Structure formats: C-alpha cells, structure tokens
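Researcher: Here's a chain I'd like modeled. Treat it as a single chain, no partners, no ligands.
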Amino acid sequence: MKKLILFISVFVVYSLSFSTLIDKDLYKKLGSPRLDKKVLNRALEGLSEIDIENKQVITIIDYTKSANEKRLFVIDLKKEIIIFDTYVSHGKNTGGEFAKIFSNNIDSLQSSVGFFKTSNTYMGSNGYSMRLDGLEKGINDNARERNIVIHGAKYATKSFINKNGRLGRSWGCPAVPLDLSKDLINSIKGGSIVYINGDLNNYQKKTKFLNL
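Model: Modeled as a single isolated chain. Structure tokens:
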C-alpha cells in the first residue's frame, strides 16, 4: 500500500511539474505567426504522453507548409520562447515544394511523420549530425536503420531558394541550414522530442500519442 501511495505521489508531482511548463497562453507568448496553433497543441499533447526525461525543449517540423517557408521550430518550454525558427528540407521522393508522400520504408528517400527522440551526435559525411529514433511502430520506427538524422546542408538555405525556386531536398532527413546546424543540434540533443507534422489522414489512424 505504501508503495502504491508513493507511486501515485511521484506520478502526481511529475505531472504537475510538467504542467507548469505548459502555460495556457504559450502560443501567444511564442509570438510566431508561422507556427500553427493546432500543430503546437498536437506536439504538446504527444509530449505529455511520452515517457522521457527531457521535456523542457521540443522541436516541431510542419511539413504541411511550403518548403520555401521556415517550418522548423525549437521551443524552450521553460523559458516559453522559440530559440530556432528556420528552414528544413524533406525527402526528394516526398515532394517538390510541398511534402505529400511519407514513408517508413528503407531506401524510400521519403520523410516520415510522428514523434521521434533525439539520440547521439556524430561527425559524418554531412558534418556534425544527430540520429533520430522513431517512437511509433509502423510510422517511423525504421528511422535508425534508415539513417534519418538532423544535419546541416547548403541546400537548406534562403540563398538556395532564391537561386533554384525552392529549397533543396534530402534522402529523407530533416536537413537544416549549415550555419546554424551545430547550435540547433546541441540545443535538442540527448533525448528531447521532435514532432514532424504531416499526412494526418493516414497518421491519425495509426498513432497512439494523439487523440485526433
């Protein structure tokens, strides 16, 4: 009985400590018209359902937006501020300017949606990079085997858009501007959540983290 009471007490304290991070007026405080309120709410709902230690920062990628828009947001939930607001690529077989087709399949060269956890960093062919672990079976759980990582790329920049008419595309990785990739990766590494929004019609049938 004592163990049960202790468990309940710890759970309540944990829940309250997390809820204090999420202010009802958070969307207004963030002050970014590029960040969709519904997408923010989905990300926070999933975050509350996932058992991880690092819930003070969350990354949101909104693939329903044009690749020519800034659609990656890193949010410090404790300070209630957006610390990165930038461009991010999608997979070459996912679409041109707009991301339309998503996959969990190996060698598909397509992006995946859903909730991921940031993992280890390393130096690879794309420089300083960070692995992502997909948390949803059948949706993105092949991310590690597919080498889906966050890395910097010259084709994920405003200058590339100006020259080519749209952002460049990856092999499925969420590639970000090279000049800020290291700082961005360091701010979210070590087990924080990345929520990639897109393809809700199929995603909502499979996910266990959102009550859509």
